[in-house]
Amino acid sequence: MELVGLKPSEKAALKTPHSTSGFSKVVALYMQPMSNRSLIVLSLSLLLTSLTFAQDLGKPVTYRTVAIPLRQALEQISLQAGVKLTVSDELGSEPIILCLRGASTKDTMDHVATAVGAKWTDRGKGEYLLERTPAMAEKLEQEAVTKRADVIKKSIDRLSADMAADKRTPQEMATSVAGSFASEMKRFEQNRGSGRDTRMVVAHMPAHRALVRLLKLMRPEDLAA
To answer: Is 144 helix (H, G, I), strand (E, B) or coil?
Structure first.
């Protein structure tokens, strides 16, 4: 693009990255009756906006708290950050624990967003909103289901392994369980009962064993949903 109406030194200033004089010359160029002036001003506006964004989020934050509502924590951080940090109603009551020492505002925002599974939206005029999109909420729910399914599967596998290791005949098992149950009930009457011992007795009862077999036939993902 040909720059008319400018001296050679002024043209060189425009081509210098992040040049303060370059900025002033672009503004001056806007006053010239040129067909490309809108494009130049738009480029300047985007560049200035980018620089301002980086400056706004560079302030250090030192903040420490026990578990408090996310909305309250962001209100306090905003006082140091110089920008207004807000949160959606859905996440406002989420508890959060923070320990920040000289972290930049941007790093603080990134950390908070990652911790709660959300993202920041620039609402303009120095305000940023933390919110969780439907896609993010769906992903978090799927991850939770996967973790629950894994725990359920391990528990069922452990119970199945315990049952398989018991080689007693049904008659022997019935006699043993009946005796153990009567003994444990007597201990409870004497205030000497143990919840752990009772659970061990129940684990050998026919109903419990049948339930374990039934659970073994089901998909852990269905049980976790």
So the answer is: helix
